[in-house]
Amino acid sequence: MQLRQRATRLRRLDDVLGGGDTFRVYLGEYQATKTMLRDGSYTEATGHALLSVLSEQAQQAGWAAFDAGKHADASSLYEDSRQAAVESGDASLAGNALAFLAYQRVDADHTAGTETAIQACHVAGPDAAPGVRALLNERLAWTYAISGNAGETERALDAAEAALGEGNKNPQPDWAAWVDRNELQVMTGRCWTELRRPLRAVPVLEDVLARYDNTHARDKSLYLSWLADSYLAAGEVEQAAAVTGRALELSAGVASVRPRARLAPILRQLRDHYDVPAVADVLERAKP
């Protein structure tokens, strides 16, 4: 289907652009397909396929809205995506819509976020493609980490790794194709950072970020923020300052609110060490 191929191509924009640049593009695609569903004439099978594409497009637009700081829009689009996925009979997409909602909710309500992430895994089910199960389990791990539950975090990460180890027995949807061992390694480091376990987090993040291309500026700057956070937790102030500087450079000009939001508490902590030259330098560079 041409619409799905177009969604696949447009999804690649998120590799290099922030949500502030892509939101209107993705939202326009979603609205056009919604109009087609409402006004067009088609078979039942085509209708289900259109609903599946609509669900993908709503997730793309919702993610861009979240990245741009439009949280009400993101939540509404994720809910629309879930409904369209259920109507289309696509359990994996329905589970992913819930995982997006969990990722958004967990900061404000740890319990609600974790419960939604658990539901996401159940909805997708054990027959989902390995990449889908890996994605949903790593997002479940994230909610457990935010909640401070180290044991369940590790179990969910192990489940994600086991799913990736199965290979591609089932057809892999493009929206989950970016999930690989590097992505899982990043999430592992992020989780251990949130759990205040820097001795586990730092080696993992250092290793994967050394291979992470700077063209993915938004994502790399975000991941560097967790590395800087872990260095601070370990008392390595100069290293934290150096990594924070790298993150600031990469995030400059990226149309996403998230890198700066992630770096703000790190910069506040660094102010306590202003007498360290590397810290003073990065604080000066961080000024608006």
Describe the protein's architecture and organization.
The protein is mainly alpha-helical. It is built from 14 helices and no strands. The protein has helices spanning 2-11, 19-39, 44-67, 71-88, 91-105, 110-124, 130-146, 150-164, 181-194, 198-209, 217-233, 237-251, 258-270, 277-286. It is globular and about 70 Å long. The chain starts with a helix and ends with a helix.
Mind sketching the topology for me?
Layout: H1 2-11, H2 19-39, H3 44-67, H4 71-88, H5 91-105, H6 110-124, H7 130-146, H8 150-164, H9 181-194, H10 198-209, H11 217-233, H12 237-251, H13 258-270, H14 277-286
Helix pairs in contact: 1-3, 2-3, 3-4, 3-5, 4-5, 5-6, 5-7, 6-7, 7-8, 7-9, 8-9, 9-10, 9-11, 10-11, 11-12, 11-13, 12-13, 12-14
